Amino acid sequence: MITIAxxxxxxxxxxxxxxxxxxxxxxAVLDAGAHLKAFSRMDGAVLGSIDLxxxxxxxxxxxxxxxxxxxxxxxxxxxAHALELSNGGLAPFAGGISLFARDGTVIGAVGVxxxxxxxDLEIAQAAAAAAARRCADT
Amino acid sequence: MITIAxxxxxxxxxxxxxxxxxxxxxxAVLDAGAHLKAFSRMDGAVLGSIDLxxxxxxxxxxxxxxxxxxxxxxxxxxxAHALELSNGGLAPFAGGISLFARDGTVIGAVGVxxxxxxxDLEIAQAAAAAAARRCADT
Amino acid sequence: MITIAxxxxxxxxxxxxxxxxxxxxxxAVLDAGAHLKAFSRMDGAVLGSIDLxxxxxxxxxxxxxxxxxxxxxxxxxxxAHALELSNGGLAPFAGGISLFARDGTVIGAVGVxxxxxxxDLEIAQAAAAAAARRCADT
Amino acid sequence: MITIAxxxxxxxxxxxxxxxxxxxxxxAVLDAGAHLKAFSRMDGAVLGSIDLxxxxxxxxxxxxxxxxxxxxxxxxxxxAHALELSNGGLAPFAGGISLFARDGTVIGAVGVxxxxxxxDLEIAQAAAAAAARRCADT
Lengths: 138, 138, 138, 138
Known about the structure:
Four copies of one chain form a homotetramer. The first copy, chain A, is an alpha+beta fold. Chain A is about 45% helix and about 20% strand. Chain A has one domain (about 5-135): Beta-Lactamase, CATH 3.30.450.150. In chain A, strands 2-1-4-3 form a four-stranded antiparallel β-sheet. The longest helix of chain A has 21 residues, at about 115-135. The mean pLDDT of chain A is about 95. At the A-D interface, α2 of A face α2 of D.
C-alpha cells in the first residue's frame, strides 16, 4: 500500500531532479489498483503530458513492470499485436516505473512526462528511488 | 494562472480541515482551462471519489461558479434539463469551488470528495480560502 | 444546404442581440447532418457552454425541432423515458433551433449557450431569424 | 489570451489562401487550454476533416509546437511509441500550428484540414501569420 506521505516524497524527489536538469514535468503516482494517489504539474509543463504521465504509470502498474518494457511485447515483430490499444490505450515508452515493497508485491507506479523521453526516464528513476530507499529502510 | 506552489497550499489547507473533522478526502486543483494542476488522495479516501473530486472542480470552473450552483440550473423544475449530461458528465453537488484572482478572472478551481456532501463543502471552502488569502496578500 | 456565408450571418445576428443584452455566448451552426459548420465563442463566454451550444443545436436538428421541444417527449410523465441519454447525450432545453428552407426541408440548426436559458433562447431566435429572412428573400 | 476578433482574422487569412489555391478546408482556432474559440467549414470541405482540423490544433497546443512535430516523437524508431493514442487521440501530421504572444507564452493554435497535407500546411501557415502579424504590431 502506498501512502500519501510517500507519494509526496516520490514526487518531491522527481521534481528535485527535474529542477536540476531544468525540465518542467508532470508526475503521477498511482496505487497498485492503478488509481491516482497524487499528481503534480510543475509550472511550465505542457498540457499534453498530463495524460502521458498518468498513462505511463498506468501502463507500468497494469503489467507490474516499466512502461517501456510493455513495448517489447507489442513492437513490430513481437507477438502481442496492438497490445497498446488495450486498457483504453497504453503509453508504452520510458517514464513509467512500477514500485514494489521489499517482499516483492507491487505497491503502485510513478509516471513522468514533459521532457525528452530520456529526461523523463531519468526523473522517473530519481522519483522511484525515493520509494525504493523508503522500502529498504523500513 | 495558478502555480504549483499555490495548488499545494490549497490542498494543504483542505487536508488540515479534513484531518480536524476526521474525514479522508480526495482533493483536485484545476487550472482555468479545467486541466489538472495537482491532486492528492488522503489515506483511506474511497476510490470512487477520485473522479468526483476532479468532476466537481471541473463543473465549477467550466461555469465559473460552484459545483452546486450548477444544479440550480438543471434540478427538477429548472429550465436546463439534463445539463448534467453535458461536457462529458458534470458533478453538480457541493465540493467544487472556482478560484478567482483579485481582478475577477477565474484562475482555476478546487474539488473535494470523500466525505458527506456538507463535509466535502466545508473542506473545499477551507481549501479555497487558502487561495483567497494568497490573492488578498499579493 | 447551409453555406458558410449564411452561417456567419446567423452568428452575426445572434452576437448582435447578445451584445444588446450584454451576455457573452457561444453560438454553433450545424448542417442538416448535425455536422459543425461554424462556431464562435464571444470573449467572456464560459467554457462549459461550448459543448452546450453544440449540444442544443444537435438536439434540435436530430429531431427537426427546437431543443426544448425534445424535452416534451422525455420529461417525467412523458413516454420516451431517458431519451436524453440517446445520441451520446442530448441538451433538451431552450437555445437550439432548427433551420428550414422555404420548401420545408431542414437545412441545419443554431445553438446558443452562455446566458440564462431565456437569454439563450432570445439570442437563438435572433440568430435563426437571420436565416429565415434569407430563406424568405431567396 | 486569444480574442474572437483575432480568431476571425486568423480564419479569414487561412480562407483567403485556401481560395487562392482552390481547396475548401475546415479551420479551427483553439485557446491555450485547447478549448474551441472559433471554427469555420468552407463550402465543399469534407466532413471527416472537421475532427481533423480540431485535432491538429489540439495536438499542436497540447505540446506547444506544430502537429507534425509531435510525429517526430512517435514515428517508427522514435522513442515515444504510441504517443498518438494519448489525450484521446492525436492528429500528428501537418496543419496544426501553435500561436504565441510576443513574450513566448502560448495563446492557442490553429488547425486546418480538407486538402492534401502540404496544402493544409500552407493554409495553416497563412492563418498563423495573421496572428503573428497582430502580435508583432501590438
